[in-house]
What does this fold into?
Amino acid sequence: MANDQRLHSLLQRFETRDRTALARLITLVENRAPEVGALMELIYPKTGNAHIVGITGPPGAGKSTLVNRLIARYRAAGKRVAVLAIDPSSPFSGGAVLGDRVRMTDHYRDSGVYIRSLSTRGSHGGLSRAAREIVKLLDAFGNDLIIVETVGVGQTELSVMDLAHTTIVVMVPEGGDGIQVMKAGLNEIADIFVVNKADREGADRLKAELEMGVHLRQAAGWNAPVMLTQAVADSGIEALVAAIGKHRDYLSQHPDPAREREQRAREFIQVLAAELEERSTRALGNGGGLIGEVREGRLNPYSAVRRLIADRAALARLLSDNAED
Amino acid sequence: MANDQRLHSLLQRFETRDRTALARLITLVENRAPEVGALMELIYPKTGNAHIVGITGPPGAGKSTLVNRLIARYRAAGKRVAVLAIDPSSPFSGGAVLGDRVRMTDHYRDSGVYIRSLSTRGSHGGLSRAAREIVKLLDAFGNDLIIVETVGVGQTELSVMDLAHTTIVVMVPEGGDGIQVMKAGLNEIADIFVVNKADREGADRLKAELEMGVHLRQAAGWNAPVMLTQAVADSGIEALVAAIGKHRDYLSQHPDPAREREQRAREFIQVLAAELEERSTRALGNGGGLIGEVREGRLNPYSAVRRLIADRAALARLLSDNAED
It folds into this structure.
């Protein structure tokens, strides 16, 4: 009850575009609070208006500077912008990304821009789920553009890119990564390629490699353009904004109802699986019964799961709202 | 029934150490076949004998060469060795790891060595689950040592390291990553540090940094040693094997029953969550009912999940073995 009231009051403030309420709702999602399901159900009808842009690329490609420049352009056009930065807490790149983040503070005082980092530390499976739900919150809040930035080095990060309408893959010339990108199938997820730091040697060669890759995969449909930018010098950004707009137009002119149905079905299964996992974790956290036997090593986890699934009443009790009944 | 028979016959061959049967059982796990639960339950009692060594580190640190050298030492000592290489299919390192893999073929013809790659491509959440189950198969097969190698750049890869009894973090001098490693909390998961390519400049400084980090975290218990190796020249490998043995002895002399109970309980919840997810995916894949409404956009996924959970009978039907009853 107390939780219901808290949620209700936060939602009322959320609807008046209260940024503190938004921040607290995001924190609920991050912490996997029990009321997340109810929250998402309530805000769901308000979603679907934002354009979601995913930006990924290796550490040091200048993604955050690029995001900074994009924010400035969209703000100048009167758009509300939100950024969700997936901080990989990667053992081998964590530091650099943290440094990048600081540069985004240019826009921290602008009330039309909302920036949030989501740390992956310690949240193994839950990250893409949390990211998806936070994006929905940012969408329902009334943002026109939502940028999701990842370092794109792990599967979790790649799965976050599934959320985006338009996926931008940022590369730099010296990486010599053109071929790698193709091998790894990144050309399949990129709607737009950006060669940043385009003043450096090799930019044109990388552009040509990427264009060749795009050409090879192309049957019909959208042709991923390769844009040259120098984010630090604010160069090439307008053309990138135009390319994003063009891709958005392309999507609205080429609806894919089969794909949308598939996405909705997949989302349902993901939400259900997450809910079942969270419910069993909470219920089993109290110990006793089967989990007690497993904990003491008297029963192996696979046998325990088989027994639990065979006992419909026990399973339903475990997953229901009132564990005690 | 046909599946039961196939499983039974594979298990009979598995028990005679038939490598083809092992490979086919691993494939079942990789493909999330419905009989995986039954398989794991059957082999579970045979597990618990292998020592599981996790090896992680950045691309290019020489992990695969190191693994190659370790295999040679353990084989010379008459041990059965298995390697599970988690291939990250990372957009920014995929190629290099693929190249490394080839070098491990030294041992492909030795029947006491079993090497398997597990690709992360397309298996977002399921990777750590599959890795855990494959390690159990390799354990039940009678391997003495199981090496799990990852590139350790994503959360999925880090969670795989949870499986290991002994976790080895491999670094190279030029990375200058000593401080990064500390920041990222890698010093908390490392039981042994390896500074590979130790002939290069900066090896001693990196060793000193790592030792300082180990010293700072240390309250009581195991002190992670920092080993210098040159895997290419087969140098420092014997000392590393000795360090692994020492850590294994330490673990057996310092049992931690509370931690073991916790691990068993966590494994139960993970297995249960995975089983529930797979069952709902299969049941819902048939379409109709709630998922049909979600697919057509008439019902949002969160409302559908709430309804399903509220309807105990429907939920139990969905998760039971016979979806039609």
The first strand of chain B starts at residue 51 and ends at 56. Confidence is low (pLDDT under 50) at residues 90-103 of chain B. The two ends of chain B are 18 Å apart (CA to CA). The first helix of chain B runs from residue 2 to 15.
